[in-house]
Amino acid sequence: MSEYNIREMIDKKKGKSGNAAIEKAVPIILLIITLVSVLTTIGILVTLLTETVMFFTRVSPIEFLTSTEWSAFSSDPQWGIFALIMGTLKITAIAIVFAVPVGLGAAIYLSEYASDRIRRLVKPVLEILAGIPTVVYGFFALTFVTPLIRGIWPEVNLFNAISPGLVVGVMIIPMIASLSEDAMSAVPNSMREGALGLGSTRLEMVLKVVLPAAVSGIMASIVLAVSRAIGETMIVSIAAGSTPNGSLNLMESLQTMTGFIVQVASGDATYGTDTYFSLYAVGMTLFVFTLLMNIIAQWFSRKFREEY
Amino acid sequence: MELINKEQVSKKLSGRLMVNKVMKFIFLLCTLVGLVVLATLLIDTILDGWRYLTVDFFTNFSSSRPDNAGIRGAIIGTLWLMATTAPIAIILSVGTALYLEEYAPKNKLVDFVKINISNLAGVPSVVFGLLGLTLFVRMAGLGNSVLAAALTMSLMILPVIVVASQEAIRSVPGSIREASIGMGATKWQTITRIILPASIPGIITGIILALSRAIGETAPLVIIGIPTILLFTPTGVLDTFSALPMQIFSWVKLPNPEFQSITAAAILVLLFILFLMNSVAIYIRNKYSKRF
Amino acid sequence: MTLAKVKEETDMNTVYDTAVDSRTQEMNSIKQTSNAIFQAKDFNLWYGNNHALQDINLDFNENEISAIIGPSGCGKSTFIKSLNRMVELVPIVRTEGDIVYRDQSIFDKSSTVENLRTKVGMVFQKPNPFPKSIYDNVAYGARVHGIRNKKVLDQVVEKSLKGAAIWEEVKDRLNDNAYGLSGGQQQRICIARALAIEPDVILMDEPTSALDPISTTKVEDLMHELKKDYSIIIVTHNMQQAARISDRTAFFYQGYVVEYDKTNVIFDKPKDQRTEDYVSGRFG
Asked: Residue C176 pLDDT > 50, yes or no?
């Protein structure tokens, strides 16, 4: 075998490659790509703001904020966002009331009681549940849950808050369960051993040591889930109806902010009409709500990270 | 006087243990809720829809008559959408993740970019739909085309892939980077030859999971104005198209009970595609996890 | 750089005059016998506000093993990483003074840092093979520097693995992942990987600190072999190791070079009290 002089070969290769140019160009290209995400945010803000301003040149913002009636399609349209917010809140409230106890219970079971085998079995199920498209959940709400509820309480309307509310709850359970479990798992074992060593039962340890220690992480998961529920679109579009109202009645048809946007978009909202611009005013309101929730969630999770 | 009455403690203990047992059972039930709902949803949909899963169902276009209704346009449209979304999303997200992990200086601007990305992850999909409608459909003049929808979807799933890719890149130990740099490899050589190959399983898992979110996403498509009844398939990215979730949404609203079963059949197809994608993702993750 | 200037500069250093004297004398003898491959000249380094290396003046000789010892945090790792400019991967690092490699400053803009690192190889504290096959690990450097010919790569891999005394153990499983090897074997793969691009100098940053005694012996034996063809600079926290393997030893303390001399001098008749305290195990 003839000997190759590697050193010589390497030295010869040096300098004639375009390496230096690539090394200089790559960070610049990647930076430009990275800025796309910033541009997206700017795009969202500018889009929503300009069209919302257009809306407010046609409809008084005072009416938007103070009227309690929303009827975009009537001959005498009313633009009180309150009716849509009420719809969103009803759905979100039902979802949270259902999902928080169940999700937390599951998180406690998975983090503190379950064997590794059960955990390995259940976690993928939660992931699948989280991955089911919301249009499928909507179908499930309308064709399975609603008839079930109406079988028990015949006075419930075909479109109501309960069924989509519960199904939105199902949708956010995996989120609460897995994020809260992460938070509880981050609690150091030494704290658990301390409690168990004093003769606490496992339940007492969970309630008095683990939950208080993980509380900011759990709060973050709940707030994020609220944000998801507020922004949820297809389930409510399919199963909640399309009659905006400000009532607290859970049995009758309603409309959420997201439901309204879909209703307008799937019909033909002619460009330039009040209804068209109202899409963005509602979108802006929705965006503000979810952004607030996300900021709160980030505050909680930063607090949690600082603790551990 | 004793401070602790041992007899009383042990008497109370059995009660405490009982409560512990009961609560453990309740926690177990909570865990099973997800399982039960998933099973119910699947069984209900299968019972409802399996009869319609015929060859005709896959080869027919959408129709207002239940006997002729099929998902050919929807499936091909969805494939077009995914095939267009994937490259755009991958370039944007992996590029962003590489910049943030490998090149970004530590300063306020980069912190802002990171916070911005996590905020984008929380923006509802309808809002992305409004962005797509204004920016791509109207301003860029792309109309309700595959490209307009793919760009919207790409921006929507960007945070998911960025975060997954960042985690995968971060899991490559610094010592390996040092080894490569220490041999005179340049930064970009180290990235392409060491860091990307080592983190690619995590990145691919993130991409598949993000795409499986995009494939079932309906709201942005509705807002962009994707048609539901379309009797042809796209031949390019500038053509209009229909998509599976869009088709499901339009059928679900029809009062005819036969359409309920057809909707269920379309859902089964969508869920099957999702199941396949998730299986691949989980397989990759399990096969390559914990290598360092 | 003339010797006179070095002397002049070192003479300015009045704080450690004893060390400086001995080194200056030493340098005269070095110049007569062989060339210094690395020379640190009034080298200072800061991590932010932390002055980690202060006025380092050291010369390392060709085909010798030079050891750097000192307690944790004395700057010895920082210093060895300065020699191939790996220390600059930490963004807050700032340096002053100069390090000369074969008559050229390593900070000279006319040559790239990558170029320096192909000539100055490094072996790290913990074995850090790439998550690739043994073959791909060793061939990595050659490939990065543009060599794709399979025959050449085969030869590089075999020669380097032989050079690192691990060829016999792995020749039948070159395509296996390097992670399947023991820690000691992994470290010798890393040495082979460094040898593959035929460097001039090999820097070793506590190369045996993560290894068991038997693997340590193997690596130390290997270093004796490598000395014939390479110059080696090794950082070690293990004084016995320095005594066993090195020709010269520098004692670092709190960012300064306290004493630098032939290894037997450092261990038997150190001039500085602190050196004596350290090598006799009174602190560190």
From this structure: yes
Q: What is the mean pLDDT of residues B2-15?
A: 79
Shared domain for A40 and A73, answered yes or no, is: no
Which of B106, B189, B194 minimises the CB distance to C130?
A: B194
Q: Is A267 on the interface with B (CB under 8 A)?
A: no
3-state SS record for chain C:
CCHHHHHHHHHHCCCCHHHHHHHHHHHHHHHHHCCEEEEEEEEEEEECCEEEEEEEEEEEECCCEEEEECCCCCCHHHHHHHHCCHHHHCCCEEEEEEEEECCEECCCCCCCHHHHHHHEEEECCCCCCCCCEHHHHHHHHHHHCCCCCHHHHHHHHHHHHHHCCCHHHHHHHCCCEHHHCCHHHHHHHHHHHHHCCCCCEEEEECCCCCCCHHHHHHHHHHHHHHCCCCEEEEECCCHHHHHHHCCEEEEEECCEEEEEEEHHHHHHCCCCHHHHHHHCCCCC
Cα separation, A140 vs A93, whole angstroms:
20
**Domain assignment of residue B1, yes or no:** no
Mean pLDDT of chain B: 91
Could you say which of C91, C126, C141 has the minimum Cβ distance to residue B175?
A: C126
Q: Distance between CA atoms of C3 and A279, rounded to whole angstroms?
A: 80
**CA geometry: angle at A270 spanning A261 and A55, to 5°?**
65
Residue C3: pLDDT above 50?
Answer: no
CA distances from B145 to B142, B191, B234 (A): 6, 36, 9
With residue B122 as reference, give the H or E element that holds it. none
Q: What is the per-residue pLDDT across A185-235, written as a single tens digit (0 to 9) for each?
A: 999 999 999 999 888 899 999 999 999 999 999 999 999 999 999 999 999
Average pLDDT on B91-110 reads 93
Decide if A40 and B131 are in contact by the 8 Å CB cutoff. yes
For C113, name the nearest residue in chain A, comparing CA atoms only: A20
Q: Do C146 and A20 touch (CB under 8 A)?
A: no
Q: Are residues A159 and A23 in the same domain?
A: no
My answer on whether B143 and B173 are in the same domain is yes
Alpha-carbon gap, residue A146 to A158, rounded angstroms: 7
* Domain carrying residue B11: 6-52
What residues have CB less than 8 Å from B245, skipping those under 6 apart?
A133, A135, B78, B215, B216, B217, B218, B221, B270
Mean pLDDT, rounded, for B65-73: 84
Q: How many domains does chain A have?
A: 2
Cβ contact (<8 Å) for B35 and A122? yes
Q: Domain spanning C3-279 has what CATH number?
A: 3.40.50.300
pLDDT band per the 50, 70, 90 thresholds, residue C28 = very low
CB A212 within 8 A of CB A168: no
The number of residues making up chain A comes to 308
Which of A177, A172, A169 is closest to A110 using CA atoms? A177
* The pLDDT of residue B56: 87
Rounded (10°) angle between helices B196-216 and A116-131: 50
Measure the CA–CA gap between A216 and A106, rounded to whole angstroms.
Answer: 18
| Domain match, B232 and B273 both | yes
| Angle formed by the axes of helices B146-170 and A19-58, nearest 10° | 130
**8 Å CB contact of C124 and B178:** yes
ipTM score: 0.92
Instruction: Please tell me whether residues A201 and A301 are part of one structural domain.
Output: yes
Whether residues B42 and B98 share a domain: the answer is no
pTM for the predicted model, two decimal places: 0.87
Instruction: Residue window 73-102, chain B: list those with CB within 8 Å of chain A.
Output: 91-92, 95-96, 98-100
Nearest by CB to C118, which of A1, A3, A10? Answer: A10
Q: Are residues B119 and B139 in the same domain?
A: yes
CA pair distance A29, A46, nearest whole angstrom: 25
CB within 8 Å: C86 and B182: yes
